[in-house]
Amino acid sequence: MAEVLVYVDHLDGAVRKPTLELLTLARRIGEPVAVALGNGAADTADVLAEHGAVKVLTADAPEFADYLVVPKVDALQAAFDAVSPAAVLLSSSAEAKEIAARLAVRIGSGIITDAVDLEAGDQGPVATQSAFAASYTTKSRVSKGVPVITVKPNSAPVEAASAAGAVETLAVTFSAQATGTKVLSRTPRESTGRPELTEAAIVVSGGRGVNGAENFAVIEALADSLGAAVGASRAAVDAGWYPHTNQVGQTGKSVSPQLYIANGISGAIQHRAGMQTSKTIVAVNKDAEAPIFDLVDYGVVGDLFAVVPQLTEEINTRKG
Ligand code: FAD
């Protein structure tokens, strides 16, 4: 069976959920060989094996410690040369997409980004993508070289599948580009304790209807009751009520959670572009004619300041 390289997203050895989802998809098209880099890389092996990785290639070096993509591209290329895989899969984070693009150029392959599904095909893996604000679903495959494919978080279930997960050390020779850039300083962002927007299973978003930065506390309280990430429409971001890093949509982030709750958001096409592939969509809007109601699974016509606190209270009560 052909081997499929899976680039592992982890923090000090703790594997992030999108990587486990990638392993589910990788097993559909071949035998997953995971590539884990940086501090704690070898600690990822057990979890990866429990989700179907037949082999885990690890490398650790100071070059992987910072947000520098070229050393990681060098390592992934070394893994590619060692394995000769049938495909390379990465999750659709900003960093992984840059790594994917650079690798594809180096190995002369086509690339598919932001796939939402993946299946085996006669002429190679077939990826499903959502296009034009999810008005269309396209299926495509790479016709040149070995496909490099990035997959959106929450696109596949996490499935247990026991495999050997034998750990092998990957020899990496860094290119001049990799060693030519140094990080001089970094300023960590204050942590909110909430999940990453693009990885969260639940996203609670607020729009212009939230009517002020301080009112986002209502949205945050609902998010916290559900263990969700907070999103915002561009109108809310442009008004300075919430950071741009939380913007959902065409010029913001693309999310695909199990549950998306839109509060005071009209449902403009550019907002839909970033959330329409969510599995279940709920909207709270005081205008029954708001376009968001065309795509919801559940809609509440009402004032968010009356509806959302009640919902939060009910959830907190049920949680005990
Ligand atoms: P509005 O459209 O003003 O809707 C506010 C809604 O809140 C209304 O439906 C109203 O009925 C409801 N409301 C008001 N008060 C309450 C209340 N108390 N309770 C309940 N409901 C209430 N937008 C994005 O979101 N993301 C993007 O990435 C993005 N990219 C863009 C890129 C381009 C090139 C362009 C041109 C536009 C882009 N936009 C984007 C902007 C987009 O077109 C809309 O302007 C924006 O999404 C509107 O945000 P909104 O729904 O919060 O505001």
Please report which band the strand proportion falls in: under 5%, 5-15%, 15-25%, 25-35%, 35-45% or over 45%.
Answer: 15-25%
- Count of β-strands: 17
What binds here, in terms of ligands, is: flavin-adenine dinucleotide
Order of helices and strands: EEEHEHEHEHEEEEEEHEHEHEHEEH
Placed side by side, the strands forming the largest sheet appear as 7-11-6-1-4-5-12
Helix percent band: 25-40%
Mean pLDDT: 95
Keywords: Electron transport, FAD, Flavoprotein, Transport
Protein name: Electron transfer flavoprotein subunit alpha/FixB family protein
Domain Electron transfer flavoprotein alpha/beta-subunit N-terminal: 4-183
Family: Belongs to the ETF alpha-subunit/FixB family.
What this model shows, in words?
- With 320 residues, this protein is α/β, with parallel strands linked by helices.
- The chain is built from nine helices and 17 strands.
- The chain has helices spanning 17-29, 45-50, 69-83, 94-107, 176-179, 216-226, 234-238, 269-272, 304-319; strands spanning 3-7, 10-11, 14-15, 31-37, 55-59, 87-91, 111-115, 117-119, 126-131, 136-140, 148-151, 166-169, 202-206, 229-232, 259-263, 280-285, 298-301.
- The protein has a seven-stranded parallel beta sheet.
- The protein starts with a strand and ends with a helix.
- The structure holds flavin-adenine dinucleotide (FAD).
Topology (elements, then pairings):
Layout: E1 3-7, E2 10-11, E3 14-15, H1 17-29, E4 31-37, H2 45-50, E5 55-59, H3 69-83, E6 87-91, H4 94-107, E7 111-115, E8 117-119, E9 126-131, E10 136-140, E11 148-151, E12 166-169, H5 176-179, E13 202-206, H6 216-226, E14 229-232, H7 234-238, E15 259-263, H8 269-272, E16 280-285, E17 298-301, H9 304-319
Parallel strand pairs: 1-4, 1-6, 4-5, 5-12, 6-11, 7-11, 13-14, 13-15, 15-16, 16-17
Antiparallel strand pairs: 2-3, 8-9, 9-10
Helix pairs in contact: 3-4, 6-9
The protein binds flavin-adenine dinucleotide.
Flavin-adenine dinucleotide binds near residues 209 and 236.
